[in-house]
Amino acid sequence: MSGWLDILSIGPSVTVQDLGRPGHLAQGLSPGGATDRRAIYEAAALLGQATPRACLEMAGMGGRFRLTLDTRIALTGAPMRALLEGEALRWNASHLLPAGSVLDIGACESGAFGYLSVGGGLACTPLIGAQSAHLAAGIGHRLQPADRLPLLADPTPDAPCLALTPEPRLSGGTLRVIPGPQTALFSADERARFFATAFTVTRGNRQGVTLAHSGAPFAPEAAGSLVSDLITSGDIQMTGAGVPMVLLAECQTVGGYPRLGTILPVDLPILAQASPGTTLRFREIGLPEAEAASPPESQWLAPLRRACQPLIRSPHDIADLLGYQLISGMVRGDEEGT
Amino acid sequence: MAAMTNAHAPFSEPHPEVLPLGLDGVLVRFALRFDAGANRAARALVASLEAAPLPGQVECVSALASTLVRFDRMATTRAFIEQALRERLLDIAHTPTHPERIWRIPASFGGENGPQLTQVAQIAGLGEAALIDQLCASPLDVLAIGFAPGQPYLGLLPANWEMPRLSALTPEVPAGAIVTAIRQIVLFANASPTGWRWLGRCAFRPFQLHAENPVPLRAGDGVQFIPVEHSALSAIEATGDPMGGARLERAS
Q: In the record, which residues are listed under signal peptide (chain A) (predicted)?
């Protein structure tokens, strides 16, 4: 530990997140971790980290922060209005935060979960091998005003700031689904109807996203007393009312509702970022195609690194252009472009 | 569908299904409905996979009637894991399972510690004292851990404990609540709503976040409740020890 992230004010649902706690299913603990996992790989790419480190996940609303040492930060996931000492910061980019400066992060402009990562990563005491809050399991808590979180020194605070254009995932789309253990409990007709239906997100959180549609509820041929079975994030479960709920990071480890299939991990960020009202569709694909389309997470970072570009400020990114002295703005642009 | 016809079959010769669960998981399902033989088979498969892991296996876990193997996609393939599991299943088909570890957990029944005891006894066709005797007579198996961290499903109770879940949820039972439905017991790790009937309570906490081993119970352990007076349970709770007076014994 070598510094602090001070929380001056905070949105209602901001937690520390990382890659979570895989390997504890036998203890009834789901992996948890960042809801939009791609966003923390993007942050790792922007900050030159070998693997994503613990960061802040901000649901809907950010907060006001101050760091006690010069540190690069990365802003990824759902874009939020970010101001450094009143100056707008580009989302999907890294920036240098001088010690003592104040960073304001406002409400989501679109999507659901924004991420604030720091160059060295947060250094909170791990519980069961990770720093991430798993509220459903009673691990960690929503951050409060006046909390201070330890952080590791940024190993390269002077590294050039970077930006990337993320894969679009803030306005819904078509998610690819592989068959799961209970897919065959649904008739071919029922599955065909599911894949032909457009769904609207009604609500979502770290545990899952609930969908609505017009038309009859979806039901398996054999409902009733199915024994509870192991579930995983991405599973599309049909609740008693035949309404789909897709499971996310903080799902339970076993569940009793029948499940139609599992969304590809690589498409899950679209679901995680789907705010209420977003339209989603599903497409069934086979396992061989899915394996090619959704590589293991250990392969996610390299292409994101290649996608990073030097951060060049453009007038488009400056929210209140008229408030700037244009000459000094241009000088600053030259410095950051090199 | 083959799965449906297998659901109630005896498991002297299991015909488990090998199915995908996510891109890095293979699920071996022994039954679609609860079946004691399927549960034993699921636990026996985990015991085998823990004793001799498959190449590329990163995690294995049993639920009530299935076993999941998660694998490292960089190290192996689904086809390899599926084939290796089919071979492994031949070895475990007749493996008897006995609990190696038995927990004895003090518990208090009825009254404020189990408001639905009377109802449970009525449905089970016994007096309250006889019902508690029946429950505490011998260890129950930890059939699975799940739903919440550390939380055990215990069973299988005698046939007179066959009772459905309540149609209306009880808004909250406390941590340590002992509840029952469908010939099983769940011991709640945290305060929780439930549709199962609440008949007792213990001071043992199945999820101890700050302990060196946060989840003391394992699937396959035995759990025997030792009935104590309300006052004795209160005294145990007053110590603040999350083990709640539980004793662990190696089965002889």
A: none
Q: Which one of B58, B68, B142 would you mutate to disrupt binding with A, by most A Cβ within 10 Å of its Cβ?
A: B68
- Chain B residues in contact with A228 by the CB 8 A cut-off are 63-64, 146-147
ipTM of the complex: 0.90
Please indicate whether, in this complex, the C-beta atoms of A27 and B23 are within 8 angstroms of each other. no
Q: Which of A105-119, A294-308, A318-332, B150-164 is the least confident region?
A: A318-332
pLDDT tens, residue by residue, A212-237: 999 999 988 865 678 899 999 999 99
Average pLDDT in the A19-40 region? 97
A229 in B contact zone (CB under 8 Å):
yes
Residue B145 neighbours by CB distance under 10 Å:
31
DSSP string for residues in A206-259: SSEEEEE-SSSPP--SS-SSPPPEE--TTEEEE-TTS-EEEE-TT--SEE-S-E
In chain A, which residue's Cα lies nearest the Cα of B2? A184
CATH of the domain at A206: 2.40.100.10
CB contact under 8 A, B63 and A229: yes
Q: Is there a single domain that holds both residue A204 and residue A241?
A: yes
Chain B CB contacts of A136 below 8 Å: 148
Sheet holding B57-62, edge to edge: B17-20, B25-29, B66-71, B57-62
pTM assigned to the model? 0.90
Based on the structure, what is the number of domains in chain A? 2
Task: Reply yes or no on whether the pLDDT at A338 is more than 70.
Answer: no
Cβ–Cβ contact B185 with A under 8 A: no
The residues of chain B scoring below 70 in pLDDT are 1-14, 93-97, 252
Residues of A in contact with B62 (CB under 8 A): 26
Residues A270 and A181 in one domain: yes
Domains in chain B (CATH in brackets) are 2-92 (3.30.1360.40), 101-250 (2.40.100.10)
